[in-house]
Amino acid sequence: MILFIKVWRAMATNRSGAAQRPNGAPQTKVCQFKLVLLGESAVGKSSLVLRFVKGQFHEYQESTIGAAFLTQTVCLDDTTVKFEIWDTAGQERYHSLAPMYYRGAQAAIVVYDITNQDTFGRAKNWVKELQRQASPSIVIALAGNKSDLAAKRMVEFEEAQAYADENGLLFMETSAKTAMNVNDIFLAIANKLPKSEGTGAAAAGGARRLGDAEQARQGSCCK
Amino acid sequence: MDDDLPTDFQVIVVGTGMVESIVAAACSRIGKNVLHLDSSDHYGGLWASYNFDGLQKFIKEVNSDPKRQLQVYNLAEKWYIEKESAQDEKKEEGEEKPEEAKPEPGKKVWSQANFTAEYRKFNIDMTPKLLFSRGPLVELLISSNIARYAEFRCVTRVLTWLSDKLMPVPCSRADVFATEAVGIVEKRQLMKMLTSIVGYNEEEMNNEFKDWNDKTFKEYLAHKGLTPNLIHYVLYAIAGGTDTMPCLEGVKECKKFLMSLGRYGNTPFLWPMYGSGELPQCFCRLCAVFGGVYCLNRPIDKVQTLTVDEGKEVVTIESKSKTLKCDHLVIGINECPKDLISPEPAESSDISKAVFITNGSIMKSDKEPLTLLRFPPLNDGDHSVTVLEVGPATGSCPKGLFVVYFITNKVKDAESDLMGIAEKIFDMSGGDQTEETDKPKCLWSLFYNVKDTSAPVKSTTGAVHVCSGPDAGLDFDRAVEQAEQIFKKICPGEEFLPRAPDPEEIVFEDDVTHGPEFTRDQDDDDAPKE
């Protein structure tokens, strides 16, 4: 996979807060949230994000070099939700995911492959890990990916749904290949996230990212 | 489980301390094929931070393993509070309130059981360090774009110990003029002094200091006519020195302090959210993002170097009955087999450290403070002690508590070196936590010594690069400098951590044909439904 560099303009540090509109029209609230992906290798974590962010699917997706950090914006009625999406960058493979991965994450998608029972078992472990490591208020979604391969299904929809209900998780079966439910699962998460002032990535109030621009705070409009 | 671990790499890094992690990131970033291992189940080695449970395990492990005590020793943990609280209040753990919760009426009475129940809210650093706002690590984090993986808080104040009490140190021009601690004439003197130190160009520096090479900074400050009060501020608080600090070093330290003012906050310093132990992890993430393979819990048994054709060396590592091969091995000093180090590192003085958990700040403040205190030597010949106090807003501890770190060069042992100062700023007597006292109550303490392994170490072969352990200094500058040197040896001529692209810049090869636009109405959903 080849990466091209484009001139970068958008501030990556937009925080929750009202965007200014010069004409005094009603303001759109912009909330930024950190979303982490979890799940076994090869269940399609990166593919889900690529489908959501770029609208693409690669049959032979290699592990994502240099692209483990993407952003995408979802517009709700009165709020713009900007997802800052973190991919595991392969650190899950030998059980070496760093605690910093979970820091400040307000949402997580735990992915399994519906054609592989083991990945569902591992997904349950990831949910436990999140309950142990992440913020108690984190919104967790369970994604049964590769739903286009229903003929080879090993994990029943009802079984996963029952597990999700028991644990208070959002649940959908998705297909990064056909795009089924991909946008929907992100939208469902966006709807469930608390969007009051003082939530989002700025909840840490006063904690800051470092940047070229010393003034790292800036509003942004819904695109 | 990790049997499918590949075996051939260009670079293998062993240990996830600060220097090792920066080198791993730098090599991976420019396309080297990197494997990064650690023998323990967590990141950071001696640079790690622990939650309260992890810290208890660490103490137990070290105390029961004489081998570990070669690095960390004299661990003394002490509680000043009851096992169970008499109040027996059943507070739900994890009930997160937004930042500005209303001040609680009356002080909470903490028990050991409360600490255990809220263990996850603690992040206690083994190597707490600050960043200078314009120091090399901040510049590196920004230029490499690794900064996006971490968040920071500004240190809100710098304190000193003067006339037997804590005093704020005026940092900025505004501070200098606002402070009541120094008179108006002194203020002018101080401003003139500080402005000139920052303003000197190289020629002026050489002129001004040509006769001061073998004299102390204190002598210089006295020569400049500074009053004893001002000398105290500049020498101990700003330069972080002692009476014997050489003049030029003092000038350098002052300059570093002053140059970092005004970038992010009222002081020159930043503290990483959740502790210093996050920073090695940020570099590791970058390494992984660019293809680095991570495997914790992977001790190594044996390291050998072989010379293959044309003098080229190959390093082989035995690990869990697997043989790993690489062109370059980067290894933390504490993981490195002794026979690879040559010559033996010179004996250096070790480091004395302490951690305290208290029920209030060492000096009350309206907003939650984040404090650096450089405690001047109490007696002649003592070292100064660096004190860092961090609160709940940094993710270091639950609400109502503070974590305070002490760091100094070892003279006798950690407890004897540091207890005198602890007693000056804490109430170490235990007793009623609700009583109103000038000094915060110490609820828990840990004293320990660390072997100073921060001196650069040479290896017996050009294919093995040994990384130093943490030093007693305030910042990470030495680690950054060493990491860059090691990188340049492995990858001569290559750029050290060039900027990683932002999400918006990443365009995939076949980006030309865009996929369906995302809209709320899901009308793009032409997927076959089950």
From TrEMBL, chain A:
One of its GO terms (biological process) is protein transport. Its main location: other. PROSITE patterns: RAB, RAS, RHO. It catalyses: GTP + H2O = GDP + phosphate + H(+). It is found in: Early endosome. Pfam families: Ras. SUPFAM superfamilies: P-loop containing nucleoside triphosphate hydrolases. InterPro entries: P-loop_NTPase, Small_GTP-bd, Small_GTPase. One of its GO terms (molecular function) is GTP binding. Belongs to the small GTPase superfamily. Rab family. This is small monomeric GTPase.
From TrEMBL, chain B:
Its main location: cytoplasm. One of its GO terms (cellular component) is Rab-protein geranylgeranyltransferase complex. It holds the Pfam family GDI. Keywords: Cytoplasm, GTPase activation. One of its GO terms (biological process) is small GTPase-mediated signal transduction. One of its GO terms (molecular function) is GTPase activator activity. Signal peptide: none annotated. Residues 511-521 have a biased composition (Basic and acidic residues). It comes from the Eukaryota. Residues 86-107, 510-530 are annotated as: Disordered. The keyword GTP-binding does not apply. Gene3D superfamilies: FAD/NAD(P)-binding domain (3.50.50.60), Guanine Nucleotide Dissociation Inhibitor, domain 1 (1.10.405.10), Guanine Nucleotide Dissociation Inhibitor, domain 2 (3.30.519.10). It is found in: Cytoplasm. The keyword Cytoplasm applies. PANTHER family: CHM, RAB ESCORT PROTEIN 1 (PTHR11787:SF4), RAB GDP-DISSOCIATION INHIBITOR (PTHR11787). Substrate-binding subunit (component A) of the Rab geranylgeranyltransferase (GGTase) complex. Binds unprenylated Rab proteins and presents the substrate peptide to the catalytic component B. The component A is thought to be regenerated by transferring its prenylated Rab back to the donor membrane. Belongs to the Rab GDI family. This is Rab proteins geranylgeranyltransferase component A. It comes from Mythimna separata.
